Amino acid sequence: MAAKTLTIDGKPITAEEGATVLQAADEAGIRIPTLCHLDGVYDVGACRLCLVEVAGTPKLLPACTTKVAEGMDINTDSERLRKYRRMTLELLFAERNHVCSTCVANGHCELQTLGYSLGMDHVRYDYLFPKWSVDTTHRLFGMDHNRCILCTRCVRVCWHIEGAGTKNVAGRGTKSHIITDLNMPWGESDSCTQCGKCVQACPTGALFHKGSTTGEMERNRGKLEFIVTAREKKQWITPE
Amino acid sequence: MTLNDLLNLKTRELSSRKKITLRCCMAAGCMSSDAKGVKQQLEKAVTESGLQDEVEVRGVGCMKLCCEGPLVQAEPNNTLYVKVTAENAPAIIAALKGGKADVPQTDPNAAFFKKQLSIVLANSGIIDPERIESYIAVDGYQALHEVLTETTPKEVVETMVKSGLRGRGGAGFPTGLKWGTVAKSPGAKKYVVCNADEGDPGAFMDRSVLESDPHSVLEGMAIAAYAVGADQGFIYVRAEYPLAISRLQIAIKQAKQLGVLGSGIFESPFNFNIDIRIGAGAFVCGEETALMASVEGKRGTPRPRPPFPAESGLYGCPTLINNVETFANVPPIYRNGAEWFAGIGTEKSKGTKVFALAGNIKNTGLIEVPMGTPLRTIVEEMGGGAPGGAAIKAVQTGGPSGGCIPAQHLDTPVDYESLGKLGSIMGSGGMIVMDDSSNMVDVARFFMEFCMDESCGKCIPCRAGTVQMHNLLDKILKREATARDLAKLEELCDMVKNTSLCGLGQTAPNPTLSTLRFFRKEYEELLQPDTYGPRGNGEPKKQPAAAAI
Amino acid sequence: MKVRLATVWFGGCSGCHMSFLDLDEFLLELVDLVEIVYSPVVDMKEYPENVDLCLIEGAICNADNLELLHKIRARTKVLVSFGDCAVTANVPAMRNQFGLGNAESVLQRAYIDSAHDNPRLPKEDGIVPPLLARVMPVHEVVHVEHFLPGCPPHAAHIKALVAQLLSGVEPKLEGKQIKFG
Questions:
Q1: DSSP calls for B224-248
Q2: Domain C3-95+130-177 has CATH 3.30.460.80
Q3: pTM, whole model, 2 decimals?
Q4: Pairwise CA distance, residues C24 & C34, whole Å
Q5: Which of B306, B452, B460 sits opposite A91 (nearest CB)?
Q6: Residue of B46, B152, B190, B463 with fewest CB within 10 Å of its CB?
Q7: Cβ contacts (< 8 Å) between C77 and chain B: which residues?
């Protein structure tokens, strides 16, 4: 593999050809905020939080799906990007019913954490307060659509890592929602293998282990990493 | 099928023509006003008058002046009957022997028709779209034959580059450049896709082309396939166009039977098949990456580009995607030469553009004009201005991705650059005229509601941003908003435009931005004093805390 | 001159005020700097004029909340949304999800369906304020200068914000000082 040299936030960097800007930045210790990205599954460029400025390109590009190129000059943290990222988060918080104080993921939530890191102390947009259901028909897991941000990580781990294809998206626009099989209660799904990878992948409290109470939701992403490493590198390493 | 066979078919078709032809519009607009009944009664009246050997009643495609349909035109004297009913048939037939029928007529030499230049619509309203012989009679498929037998794919691409044709789907990407890129992309399997998922409110150009002249699109696709090295084509057409779908099906069947589509076209080694894929009613599937996902049977959502379809498209193969009107331009370009085409239009926008003229305008219908025609010519001369002599306020082009051009800019020539400079876009050809009774904030809200409903939900700015922008526009219209809300709206417009994943989201703020640019006063008039704002006087300035205490 | 401080309790559980009392020794420092002119912890019936700083706990749930908030905005220089209910409308706003008529349905559930005896809706003009159709965070109604989320906000964060405000610095909460839930 040929190496590419580029600049990220003024720092000269060498990255493997074919690597994404996100990977290159990560290796150089530069953290770009992400929400729909999850190590081990393919990227969809949907959350728009990892948008970066590339010199000479008028459009902002998603770091997760943009490949590195020779001589690229990337800015990951301008005032404009920070403003857009905060707005994106505010739009998410206003879209569904994210009540941190009653959420299983309180304190272990990527949405919350990103909000804090961008100084989001309130949401300027009117909350939409939509009516969404909670599916607790599954023996082990629950899905609270009120907390879903439609990152589709669960859909992708289910298809890509587990190969079950239980989860998918139905509807359009702000009425989009995650469904199980052909939009049936999760507990009645024939395809669900009960592996729980979707729960591990969820960035918020939308997917949870039944019986967890407020603030209890801690995830074991190592489980996903283990499978991906085993599959791709044929190495069975238990992460620390 | 050889060239001789083709020419023989043409001769046979022309020699079977009768002295008089009554052309009846059988496109969706007139069909919805009983054009079918009109045609049946005309046929009956011909038989009853014993004129079978002299008069042909031909079902044809769109005759353009849709507001006056059903339309019937007599050939050769060109009498154009309007708002024809089935009861009018005997009178029309009787008038063929002389005299004047007591049926409403309009002047076929009126500006609406005379100012048009038909390339894409040249056969529309002339030929029978359900008979391939009718297309062959106007030199159909000769360009494909010439391309296949006398030129190399590289030369085909070069001709397209020289013609200067730009994509008619809206963005105006140079067609030749696109063809060249797909041609150069490595891959044993390539695809050609025709985007017929026309969805802009008020737009019906592509539907009319498909209903009126489907073979020109098939021939254009075949030429493109030869140029880029594809052997499979798809036409992605929306389910709401049943007539277009049925005519395409007939056309594909006939073309395959004659050997101008399928295997060994014109007895050459070139194979090209076309299949139809029917959309399920999502506007976003007009976006090329979403369209491809839908063709593959997946949920129709866009994905980031690059990779562009030319590189990795349908099933990961290099794919050429062009719009209906773009493909319909192809056969005439190869029949008449690139220089001929490049001689029409402006320096950067060549050829003609088809528009669906609608809204507060006297003559609604389909028009095709050379690029560079001033908006004023279209709206005032061809369209006849607003009904009742009202003043024109603005012209909306480009649908939910476009903008409103105010009356003071009516002298703008219609080309990609000029419309872009005014914050609008050429778009696919929807042109909605608004008179002074239109409320521009309401117009902006209408388009925002459309985008909100049609957002696929994949990326956050478009999914959640359009809802917030729509609610803010609604709040302004209800006279409940303050200057702070307007500022919020503008900030969101900027954000959604710059951060959305695909064209739908990136252009969703355009109608709002353009009405804000030209009609800001209408917004401001609706704002309320900001009684409970930072200083209680409506100024959205942040008060420094240090000074306050 | 002492800073005229008010605190107000709208639709919330009073947990934010409890957290305020957790300021402990800082409360003693505060007494030298501020005069508490209106608060659930002092006996003052009418919100006074010329208030410098007001900490607002709770979401805007009923007609009284709304009226008082308008008065507060008109009579106060700096407003702080104090705690999640004020900042996000939080738990009180959960009824908003039930759409139009949500106020009636929660009252029905609480006072009729769940009543053991004598079921009736609380209704007394001038005493029981009617619920609003939509519970709102404070900044949806009036302009708010500063936000201190938390359910409740930690006393240390309250101290940080109040100290900054009193020392005349433009307050800025950073990193872990911002916390919802």
A1: HHHHHT--EEEEEEETT-HHHHHHH
A2: no
A3: 0.94
A4: 15
A5: B460
A6: B152
A7: 543, 548-549
- Sign of the CA dihedral running A33, A38, A41, A45: negative
**Chain C, nearest residue to A103 by Cα:** C181
Tens-place pLDDT, residues B388-406:
989 999 999 999 999 999 9
- What distance in Å separates residue A237's CA from the closest CA in chain B? 33
The answer to whether residue B8 is domain-embedded is: no
d(C-alpha C2, C-alpha B143), whole Å: 91
Annotated domain spans of chain A: 3-77, 83-233
What values do phi and psi take at A4, rounded to 5?
A: -115, 140
Give the chain B residue whose CA is nearest to the CA of A49: B499
Q: In this structure, are residues B57 and B40 in contact, taking their beta carbons and an 8 Å threshold?
A: no
Domains identified in chain B, total number: 4
User: What kind of architecture, by CATH, is found in domain A83-233?
Assistant: 2-Layer Sandwich (3.30)
In the block, tokens 């090209």 appear at B272
- Give the pLDDT score at A49: 98
3-state DSSP helix/strand/coil percent for chain B, to nearest 5?
45, 15, 40
The 3-state DSSP class for residue B137 equals: coil
Same domain, B165 and B293: yes
Q: Would you call C53 an interface residue with chain B, using a CB distance cutoff of 8 Å?
A: yes
Calculate how close chain B gets to A92, using CA atoms only, in Å.
Answer: 7
Does residue B367 contact residue B120 with C-beta atoms inside 8 Å? no
pLDDT interval class at A1 (50, 70, 90): low
Amino acid found at B546: A
Angstroms from C86 CA to nearest CA on chain A:
10
Q: Which of B40, B44, B48 is nearest to B24 (CA)?
A: B40
Measured CA distances, C37 to B79, B260, C31, C43, C45 (Å): 89, 90, 12, 9, 10
In three-state secondary structure terms, B319 is strand
B214 shares its domain with B273: yes
B370 in a domain, yes or no?
yes
Say yes or no: B390 and B249 in one domain: no
What is the SS3 string spanning A47-82?
Answer: CCCCEEEECCCCCCEECCCCECCCCCEEECCCHHHH
Reported ipTM: the value is 0.94
Positions of chain C with pLDDT lower than 50, given as ranges: none
Q: Residue A103 — φ and ψ, nearest 5°?
A: -100, 140
Task: Say yes or no: B281 and B305 in one domain.
Answer: yes
Q: With contact defined as beta carbons under 8 Å apart, do A114 and A179 qualify?
A: no
Read off the tokens for B515. 């009405």
Q: Is A171 in the B-facing interface, judged by CB distances under 8 Å? A: yes
Tokens linked to B531: 């009684």
Site of tokens 């914050």:
B423
Report the CATH number at residue B333.
3.40.50.11540
Distance CA C143, CA A171 (A): 36
> Which residue ranges make up each domain of chain C?
3-95+130-177
Alpha-carbon gap, residue B94 to B96, rounded angstroms: 5
CA A103 centroid distance within chain = 18
- Class of domain A3-77 (CATH, top level): alpha beta
Mutate to test the interface with B, among C73, C143, C167 (most CBs of B within 10 A): C143
Across the interface, whether the CB atoms of B457 and A87 are under 8 A apart is answered no
Is the distance from CB of B206 to CB of B248 less than 8 angstroms?
Answer: no
| Three-class secondary structure of residue B525 per DSSP | coil
Residue B459 contacts by C-beta under 8 Å, 6 or more apart in sequence?
A45, A46, A47, A48, B499, B500, B501, B502, B505
Residue in this structure with the two tokens 């939910």, named with its chain if needed = B400
Rounded CA-CA distance B403/B385 in Å is 20
Q: What does the pLDDT look like over B340-391, one tens digit per residue? A: 999 999 999 999 999 999 999 999 999 999 999 999 999 999 999 999 989 9
Q: What is the 3-state secondary structure (H, E, C) of B324-384?
A: HHHHHHHHHHHHHCHHHHHCCECCCCECEEEEEEEECCCCCEEEEEECCCEHHHHHHHHCC
